[in-house]
Write a structure and sequence with these properties.
heterodimer; A: 310 residues; mainly alpha; globular; B: 539 residues; alpha+beta; 7-stranded mixed beta sheet; 4-stranded mixed beta sheet; 14 helices
C-alpha cells in the first residue's frame, strides 16, 4: 500500500512537471503584449512598461527566454512563492480569497451529485423499465445534451428572475451559492444516475446477489449493502475524473453568477492576458486533480476487498 | 500626453480550462439593495486604487467617492473649484493653486500643499511605474525624473516645477504654457495623498491600497474585498457638500449582464453601464429607470493616409458619405449611442454640432459619383479588434460601403486590441481602414485634437499631419484663458472637416439602470454615479 502511494506520488511529480511545462509553453506562445493588454486600449507609459517588463522578466524572449522564465517560475513555485498577478497582487492572497467560494460551490455540487445521483440511480436500477426509470432516462438525456453555459443562464433566468426562488448572483451567503452549485452539478448528476442505474441493474442479476436473497436477507440489505458497494466502483472512478469537468464548469458558472472563486479569477486572467496567474492557477488545479484521483484509487480498496495495491 | 482610449466593455465569458477545490474559511457577506440605507453600485474590479495608478472607470468611481479633486466639472464641462479655493495664472505657464482650509483626510490629517506635492512627485517619478505617470509631463522638471532609458537612474526625485508657497498654497510651473491646465487638474492623477500613504523609502505603504485613506465625502467602511465589494460610509467631518446616503457599497461584477439581472430583482441599486446584450430589452425591463446621459466616448474609422488608396481626400469623403450613421445607431446600438458628425465630443466646451458637414451627411448617390470620379480603390478593408464587441457594426458599415459605393469591403478582425496596435504603430500594409475610439481625460477640445490629430499625437496612427492644424493647437495652448483657446481649437477642427483623416461615427452615452429603492440617480461625463445627490427610499 505504502509502496503504491509512493510510486503514485513520484508519477505525480512527472505529471505535474509535464502539465506545467505545456501550460506554460501555451501561455508563453499565446501571449501578445501582456502590458498592453493590461492597459486595454490606453497607451502604456514608458515608465510603467519598463517597470513591469523587469518585474515579469518580459525582456527574456525566444527559446532561451522561455526556459529561463519557466525555470524561474518553477523555482519560485517550489519555494512556495506563487508570484504576482499582472496588476501586482500576490497570487497567494488572490487565491486565499477565491478558494473558499470554489470549495463551497463544488462541495455543494458534489454532495448533490452523490446523494441525488446515486439515490436516483439505485431507484431506477431496482425498478428497471419502470416509470421512474423512463423518466430519469429522458431527463438525464436532456441534461447531458445541454452545455453548462446554457444551463447556467437558463437556470438563472427561470429560477432567479422569473420565479425569484433563488438570488440570481452571489451575495456572500451560502444560500446564494445553492442555485449555481445545483446547475454545476447537474451535468455530472445525469451521468452518475445512468452509471449507477446500469451497475445496480447488472449486479442485481449477479450470482452473489441471488445468493444473498436466497439466504433470506431483506431486499433493502441486498441492494443497500451488497449490490451498492460493488456498483459504486464505476461511479467513484467517474467522479474522480469528473472533478476536472466540475473545475471547467466552475469557470462558466462562477462567471454567470458572479462568484469570485478560482474559476472566476482564472477566466479573467485568461481574458486579460495575465500569464503568471493563468499558469499558477492551472498548475494548482492540476495538483488537486492528481490528488483527487489518487484518493479515488485508494477508495477502490475500501469498496472492493479483492483490490489490493502492492 | 497619455489619454484613455475606449475599451468598449462587453465582458464576454471566455471559458476555457478548469476551476476549483481545496480548503478554506468564510467570506464577508455583501449587503444587498437599499433596504438597509445602503446604496449599492455595480462596478468592475478596479485595477488599482492609488490615484496616480488608476485609469479605469471602476477605480475612478471609487476614487471619486473617497477623494476630493481640486476641480469638478459643471454641466457644460467647465472646471469649477472644488477643493481649490482659487487657481490663478497670468501667462498660462505659472499657476498658483490655493486650497480651501478645513479639509482633512479620513485619519484626521489636514489636507495642505504638501498633500499634493508628495502625491504628484510620487506619480511623476519614473521608477514608481505609475500608470498615470505621463500626465505630469507638462510640469517643469518631469524629464529628469523620467530618463528615456529605463535602466538609467533618474537625475531628480521631485518635480522642479512644484513650489510650496505657504501651508495651503503652491505654485506649479509648466514647461510650456497650457491654457487649460485647470481642467487637467480634475483628473484622478492629480488627487492629494496623506503622509501615511508612503513608507520611509517613499513607496506606497503596505496595505494602504486596500484600506484607502482619502479626503473625500466617503471613507472606507471595510477593506477592499477583492472581486467582491468595496464598502464606504459618509465621512461626517467632510467640510464640503455632504452626501444624502450614509453608506455606499460598490459591488464588483465580472460580467455586467449579471449586474443587470441583479438590478432587475432590486438586489443591486445602480448599474452605471448596461452591457450590450441587455440594451435591446432595457427599456422594456426598466421603463423610466433606464436612462441616458452624455459621456465622452468617440468612435471613429481612421484612414491610413500614408496608403495611396486613401491618400485622396475626396475618396475619404465619399466613403464617409456612404455610411448611414443613424441607421447603425438605431439598429445595432438600440439608441444607446448617438450619431457623430463632429470631431470632438459634445461634452467638451467649444463643441459645435455638425462640423463635419456634407462629408458626414448620408448621401449614397453623391458618394458613389464622388468615389467614381476620384477612382477610389475597388476593394477596401476595415480592420477591428475582436475583443471589444465591434464586429456587428463594422460589418454593417462594410455592407453599406458595398451597397452604396459598389466596392468590395472586407471586415478584418484582429484578436485583441493589443495585436492591432503594433501593426498600426509600424504602419504595416494590409490593415486598410481601422476603427478606433477615444475617451477623454478631462473635458477639453484639446484633449481630442492633440492626441488624435496633431502630427505627433500619441494616438495619431493614421499618418495625418497638417502644419496649419498643429500651429493652431500650439497657439491655443498659449492663450491666457480657456475661452480664447477654444476659438483657435474650433478653427483647427474646421481644418479636420476639410482633410477628413478620420470618419466620425458615434458618440457614446452612459446607459444606466437603477432599482426602485433609489432616486435622483445621475451619471456624469466620466461614467461615475453622483453619490452626493442620490437618495434611497429606505433612508
Amino acid at each position: 500500500m505504502i509502496r503504491f502511494i509512493v510510486r503514485r506520488l513520484l508519477q505525480m511529480v512527472a505529471a505535474f512537471l509535464g502539465t506545467t511545462l505545456i501550460v506554460y509553453a501555451m501561455t508563453f506562445a499565446a501571449q501578445g503584449d501582456p502590458i498592453q493588454a493590461l492597459a486595454g486600449e490606453k497607451p502604456v507609459s514608458a515608465a510603467q512598461r519598463a517597470y513591469l517588463t523587469e518585474h515579469f522578466h518580459l525582456d527574456h524572449t525566444g527559446f532561451g527566454g522561455f526556459w529561463y522564465r519557466y525555470a524561474t517560475f518553477l523555482g519560485h513555485l517550489l519555494r512556495g512563492d506563487l508570484g504576482d498577478t499582472l496588476t501586482l497582487r500576490p497570487i497567494s492572497s488572490v487565491l486565499a480569497e477565491a478558494w473558499p467560494y470554489t470549495v463551497k460551490l463544488t462541495g455543494i455540487a458534489m454532495v448533490f451529485v452523490v446523494v441525488v445521483g446515486v439515490g436516483a440511480g439505485v431507484l431506477a436500477g431496482v425498478r428497471k423499465g419502470g416509470l421512474f426509470d423512463g423518466a430519469t432516462l429522458l431527463l438525464t438525456l436532456v441534461v447531458i445534451g445541454v452545455p453548462v453555459v446554457v444551463l447556467g443562464f437558463l437556470g438563472q433566468y427561470l429560477l432567479g428572475i422569473k420565479l425569484a426562488v433563488f438570488p440570481i448572483a452571489n451575495q456572500g451567503t451560502l444560500y446564494s451559492l445553492i442555485l449555481p452549485a445545483l446547475l454545476l452539478g447537474a451535468l455530472s448528476l445525469a451521468t452518475t444516475v445512468r452509471l449507477t442505474r446500469t451497475a445496480v441493474a447488472e449486479n442485481l442479476r449477479a450470482d452473489y446477489a441471488k445468493t444473498a436473497r436466497a439466504k433470506g436477507l431483506s431486499r433493502t440489505r441486498v441492494v443497500g449493502v451488497h449490490v451498492l458497494r460493488n456498483s459504486l466502483i464505476p461511479v467513484v472512478t467517474f467522479l474522480g475524473v469528473e472533478l476536472g469537468s466540475l473545475m471547467a464548469g466552475a469557470v462558466v458558472i462562477e462567471n454567470i453568477f458572479n462568484i469570485p472563486g478560482v474559476g472566476f479569477t482564472l477566466a479573467r486572467a485568461v481574458r486579460t492576458d495575465d500569464g503568471p496567474t493563468v499558469v499558477t492557477l492551472v498548475s494548482l488545479l492540476v495538483v488537486i486533480f492528481l490528488f483527487a484521483n489518487l484518493v479515488v484509487d485508494l477508495l477502490y480498496t475500501a469498496l472492493d476487498p479483492r483490490i489490493r495495491y502492492a | 500626453m497619455q489619454v484613455r482610449r475606449l475599451t468598449a466593455g462587453t465582458a464576454l465569458a471566455t471559458a476555457i480550462a478548469l476551476g476549483l477545490t481545496g480548503c478554506g474559511g468564510g467570506a464577508g457577506a455583501v449587503s444587498g439593495g437599499g433596504a438597509s440605507g445602503v446604496v449599492s453600485v455595480g462596478i468592475g474590479e478596479p485595477e488599482h486604487l492609488i490615484p496616480t495608478n488608476t485609469s479605469d472607470v471602476s477605480g475612478g468611481q471609487v476614487l471619486d467617492a473617497v477623494f476630493t479633486p481640486l476641480v469638478r466639472f459643471d454641466q457644460k464641462g467647465k472646471p469649477v473649484e472644488e477643493q481649490a479655493e482659487s487657481i490663478r495664472t497670468s501667462d498660462s505657464r505659472v499657476w498658483t493653486i490655493k486650497i480651501k482650509p478645513g479639509y482633512t483626510f479620513h485619519n484626521g490629517e489636514p489636507v495642505n500643499a504638501d498633500s499634493y506635492l508628495r502625491a504628484w512627485n510620487f506619480g511623476a517619478y519614473g521608477p514608481n511605474g505609475q500608470q498615470a505617470n505621463t500626465y505630469f509631463e507638462k510640469i517643469a522638471g518631469y524629464a529628469p525624473m523620467n530618463p528615456g532609458d529605463p535602466k538609467a537612474a533618474p537625475a531628480a526625485r521631485s518635480l522642479s516645477g512644484l513650489k510650496k508657497l505657504d501651508n495651503l498654497t503652491f505654485q506649479v510651473t509648466l514647461s510650456a504654457p497650457y491654457s487649460e491646465f485647470s481642467s487637467l487638474l480634475g483628473y484622478t492623477a492629480f488627487l492629494p495623498m496623506p503622509a501615511v500613504a508612503f513608507d520611509a523609502t517613499g513607496r506606497i505603504t503596505r496595505g494602504f491600497e486596500d484600506a484607502l485613506i482619502g479626503d473625500g465625502p466617503f471613507k472606507m467602511r471595510a477593506s477592499w474585498a477583492h472581486d467582491q465589494s468595496i464598502q464606504v460610509q459618509r465621512y461626517e467631518a467632510y467640510p464640503g457638500k455632504k452626501p444624502k446616503v450614509a453608506n455606499v457599497d460598490f459591488k464588483i461584477y465580472q460580467d455586467l449582464t449579471t449586474g443587470y439581472s441583479d438590478v432587475r430583482t432590486n438586489t443591486l441599486d445602480v448599474l452605471p453601464g448596461v452591457a450590450t446584450p441587455n440594451l435591446a430589452t432595457a427599456a422594456a425591463d426598466f421603463g423610466t429607470r433606464y436612462q441616458h446621459s452624455p459621456q465622452s466616448a468617440f468612435q471613429f474609422i481612421a484612414f491610413p493616409t500614408y496608403d495611396p488608396d486613401y491618400a485622396n481626400v475626396n475618396v475619404r469623403r465619399a466613403i464617409s458619405m456612404a455610411i448611414d450613421r443613424d441607421q447603425i445607431v438605431k439598429t445595432i446600438f438600440a439608441g444607446s449611442q448617438t450619431a457623430a458628425r463632429s470631431f470632438v465630443s459634445p461634452v467638451v466646451p467649444g463643441y459645435r454640432n455638425d462640423t463635419c458637414g456634407e462629408a458626414c451627411t448620408y448621401n449614397p448617390a453623391a458618394a458613389r459619383d464622388l468615389y467614381k470620379q476620384n477612382s477610389g480603390p475597388d476593394k477596401v478593408q476595415l480592420t477591428y479588434n475582436a475583443d471589444g464587441g465591434h464586429k456587428e457594426w463594422v460589418e454593417a458599415v462594410c455592407n453599406q460601403l458595398q451597397r452604396n459605393l459598389g466596392v468590395k469591403c472586407a471586415a478584418q478582425a484582429e484578436v485583441k486590441f493589443a495585436d492591432l496596435l503594433p501593426k498600426l504603430e509600424n504602419k504595416k500594409p494590409g490593415v486598410g481602414m481601422f476603427r478606433l475610439g477615444w475617451v477623454m481625460d478631462y473635458p477639453s477640445m484639446e484633449d481630442y485634437l492633440t492626441p488624435l490629430y496633431s502630427s505627433r499625437g500619441a494616438s495619431n496612427y493614421y499618418g495625418y499631419s497638417n502644419p496649419q492644424f498643429d500651429q493652431l493647437i500650439a497657439k491655443g495652448a498659449q492663450q491666457p484663458t480657456a475661452d480664447a483657446a477654444i476659438k483657435l481649437y474650433q478653427q483647427a477642427e474646421d481644418i479636420l472637416s476639410r482633410d477628413m483623416p478620420v470618419i466620425p461615427l458615434r458618440f457614446g452615452q452612459n446607459n444606466f439602470v437603477y432599482s426602485t429603492n433609489v432616486s435622483n440617480v445621475a451619471v456624469d461625463l466620466y461614467g461615475y454615479v453622483n453619490l452626493t445627490e442620490i437618495t434611497t427610499s429606505a433612508g
